[in-house]
From TrEMBL:
The protein's name in its UniProt record: histidine kinase
Coiled-coil regions, chain positions: none
Catalytic reaction(s) noted: ATP + protein L-histidine = ADP + protein N-phospho-L-histidine
Full-protein interval shown: 178 to 435 of 435
Species of the source: Dethiosulfatibacter aminovorans DSM 17477
Gene Ontology cellular-component annotations: plasma membrane
GO annotation (BP), single: cellular response to phosphate starvation
Occurrences of domain Histidine kinase (ranges): 41-258
GO molecular function: phosphoprotein phosphatase activity; phosphorelay sensor kinase activity
Keywords, comma-separated and alphabetical: Kinase, Membrane, Phosphoprotein, Transferase, Transmembrane, Transmembrane helix, Two-component regulatory system
EC number: 2.7.13.3
Residue ranges of the TM segments: 2-21
């Protein structure tokens, strides 16, 4: 009977350890799969601007009959693709750091009202170029605890998108107010909007609603996934409402300092 007891308990132990091993290996497998997908998507996205740069430089070098002005067009195209690529590499680095838990969120005292105003100022030239009027409605002195640089990055991503996905003339509005213990920020545009089927995917990495067109705008499909990470790592929430051809509103809620 001792032998029987040993066999039964080793069987039970084997079942338990098999179950635990399965549980602990699953997240590792999933994260490994996500990493593989991330590298595949990133390489694909990097190849596109590289190809554009190569073909334009090829054309500039091979076209002996072209005038300097004609060659300049090829070089301009190549140059603007290096800008797309540099933005992409910056975003990829940020996401890689996020995935390996290397990004820390500062917890300084941040004047959110001031950050909103500074973001709008920073984009003044872009608003002007696209003939977009700006409406600002900011409650004064809304203070939150967080990382000024990252919150600025989030505001820039939302503002940059509002401009990119607007036709001229357009309208941009930024509203900030406090309710109980949270700050409520709304950034709206009267641009192209997002269809219902795209709406639930726009915070996914590499997702672009209208692939071809939105790539032409310099879109990488990474901005919103970074913005969402920043908001959530400040204990907040981000959501979007949008209607095609009417416009889009992003709402960000962040906890306020007591
Ligand atoms: P991208 O670099 O392509 O703009 P994002 O992650 O910031 O990447 O946005 C993902 C996609 O969501 C965009 O490609 C675009 O299709 C859509 N989108 C984001 N913001 C807006 C907006 N304000 N109006 C319309 N579409 C938007």
């Amino acid at each position: 009977s001792l032998l029987f007891l040993i066999i039964v308990s080793s069987f039970i132990l084997a079942v338990i350890s098999w179950h635990l091993a399965g549980k602990s290996i699953r997240p590792v497998m999933e994260s490994w799969k996500r990493q593989k997908e991330f590298i595949a998507d990133a390489s694909h996205e990097l190849r596109t601007p590289l190809t554009v740069i190569q073909t334009n430089l090829d054309a500039a070098m091979c076209d002996n009959s072209g005038t300097i002005a004609e060659n300049r067009v090829w070089l301009d195209n190549a140059y603007s693709e290096t800008e797309v690529m540099s933005k992409l590499v910056g975003e990829l680095l940020m996401l890689a750091k996020i995935d390996s838990n290397q990004v820390t969120i500062g917890n300084g005292n941040v004047d959110l009202t001031d950050l909103c105003r500074r973001t709008v100022d920073k984009f003044a030239e872009n608003f002007k170029m696209k003939d977009i009027s700006v409406e600002m409605n900011l409650e004064e002195g809304i203070m939150i605890s967080g990382d000024e640089l990252k919150l600025t990055q989030m505001l820039s991503i939302l503002t940059d998108n509002a401009i990119k996905y607007s036709e001229s003339p357009g309208k941009y509005s930024i509203r900030l107010n406090s309710e109980k213990n949270k700050a409520i920020l709304k950034i709206s545009d009267e641009g192209v909007g997002i269809s219902d089927e795209d709406l639930h995917r726009i915070f996914d990495r590499f997702y672009r609603a209208d692939k071809a067109r939105h790539r032409e705008e310099g879109g990488t499909g990474l901005g919103l996934s970074i913005a969402k990470w920043i908001v959530e790592n400040h204990g907040g929430k981000i959501k979007v409402d949008s209607t095609v051809d009417i416009g889009t509103t992003f709402t960000v809620e962040l906890p306020i300092n007591d």
